[in-house]
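Supplementary Methods S3. Complex input for the adenosine-3'-5'-diphosphate-bound model.
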Amino acid sequence: MEKPRKKFIDVVDKAMVAANTMDRDELLFSYKGILYPVTVCSPEVFKAMESLEARSDDVILAGYPKSGTNWVGQILSDLVATFEKKMQNEESINDEDLEEFPYLEVGDTGKYERMNKLPSRRVIFTHLLPDNLPRSVFQNKAKILLLIRNPKDVATSFYHFSNGMSVLPSYETWDDFFIAFMTEKSTVYSFMIILFYLVPWGSYFNYLSEWNKYAEDENVMTITYEELKENRALGVKNIAAFFGISLTEEELQGVVERSSFQSMKENSLKTHGALGSILFRKGGVSDWKSLFNEDQNEKMDKAFEEHIAGTKLGMKLKYDVYCRA
Ligand code: A3P
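Predicted complex, serialized as structure tokens:
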């Protein structure tokens, strides 16, 4: 049930090659106070994005970088493709000319007009804050699957990814990265320092707080990386039910099998090109224990308490189970 991935691989490969010739301080730009990689995003594209006409049958995945968006994205794309095949709409979903880069904020200024002409169902991934999504997403009641992961593993995964992926600034030490990950406000720093002390796509704690405002919305379903790790079959079933994708047990089981870490890693050259070997790293829970020192544990525990503990998303994260040292 593979969708064409040629465009995905082309875009990522070109961005990685371009970034290889750039200095560290040229890799990011700031838009509305948040940093993004210049090789895949631009202010013009952000402005053009407002013309996207969201639909109530869109399948949207929202997740902060490194929370498992490629994994859950594969599950969603596979659910839709399996359903379309069953309904014999296979040509439309496998047409390479219709393929768009799955992350909403990555592309060219013509992307959204092309997307407006795509047949349903469109599968869209995004790392953006809710306020930075096109207004039509909420106006037109598109359904959103919100994926969250425990913040210590997100930071750990982000650190390794930043040091492997040329489009992102790398860090000499984990301690340097930790400072950047924990820094929230850009305004107090000079431009050069911002680039060093903030991570792209903004602070994760801010991301959780902002999305928490939508956590009770009937068109938003929240799922955690950890619950999906514990029981992928149940997660896939619940996701399909939320989007109204009706499949047999056997068809659902196929989606479950194709989304195992091992299966995705083995397939990754075909699905993700050179990025695959960087992206599919460990795919587990609690790798943070290999990096966090006592002081960093305390700082993150405190930030969690201040920003998100006690909220719906905070409780969903089961911090005491997955993040206590
Ligand atoms: P690690 O770096 O901890 O291994 P994203 O896709 O949002 O960038 O997230 C990447 C993280 O999801 C990586 O975490 C990656 O290994 C993990 N991941 C990718 N596919 C997965 C799968 N099928 N099962 C579990 N984790 C997966």
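The longest strand covers residues 143-148. The longest helix spans residues 69-86.
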